[in-house]
Description:
By secondary structure, the protein is of the alpha+beta class. The chain is about 25% helix and about 25% strand. The protein has helices spanning about 30-45, 100-110, 145-160, 190-205, 275-280, 295-305, and strands at about 1-5, 10-15, 20, 30, 55-60, 70, 85-90, 90-100, 115-120, 135-140, 170, 175-180, 210, 225, 235-240, 255.
Amino acid sequence: MRTVRAGRRTVEVHRPDKVLFPGGGGAKEYTKADLVEYYREIAPFMLPHLRGRPLMLERYPDGLDGPRFMQKNVPDHCPDWIRRVEVPKEGGTVLHPVCEDTATLVYLADQAALTLHRWLARAPSDGPVDRPDRMVFDLDPATDDFEPVRDTARLLGELLDELRLPSALMTTGSRGLHVVVPLNGHHDFDEVRRFAKDTADALTEAHPDRLTTKARKKDRGDRLYLDIQRNAYAQTAVAPFTVRATPGAPVAVPVTWDQLDDPELGARRWTIADAADQARTNPWSGLLRSGRALGPARRRLNALRG
């Protein structure tokens, strides 16, 4: 066991030498200590995207070679200084963890929570978690070819510009990109999801041979899937700067629109070894303060679709 200083707290890290990301096949090996150090380093850049948001944890206690499980409820042994938020579900409630500080990030890393999936709404001090301040379009290609992702991001960005909505890009650390739109938090999940669906439908109708909104893989063919399902209540999206549970420890990283033209850009462009370098360039400068209402954009979208 090792103790790690994280802000005002000291957190115990158990089995720090445990290999979470096995090496081989060109991928570098990373241990739990490496994961802890990454999350401690990235905390100043990551925490603004986590604070106030219920989390779902993707855990691999024995590393990538062991079983995976998704955890929503906070276990009894979780330290009492970690914030919880209780949200309704059908037939009951879920007690989610919320990451407010570096110590919580380090604790989650010690729990082998490789990937943090966040809600698109923040939890108020009282009241329901039902007003998302983010809208996410997940660009999921049919193959590992990144060019369709790059092309679709440009098309979607141009459409959002027409709707006068700000948007930002993030590599997913998997295969595609997320296009993120900041909202003012005045709309409920149903309204945001409908708007995202209608926007995606408008784009696929203009490019039916290249894009689809069909959820079933067998119905997509070789078309890129424009996934808007993450905008529904209780759904989650991978958090900016989170590690993905893939060999080499790739990271979901915010990028600028100019970086879309970089031929070296790909979904797994950054790992825990260099994601902090990208974070220091502040690629989403000002985005967190630019949330918009959907009313004017809805009127423009309706006019575009006739």
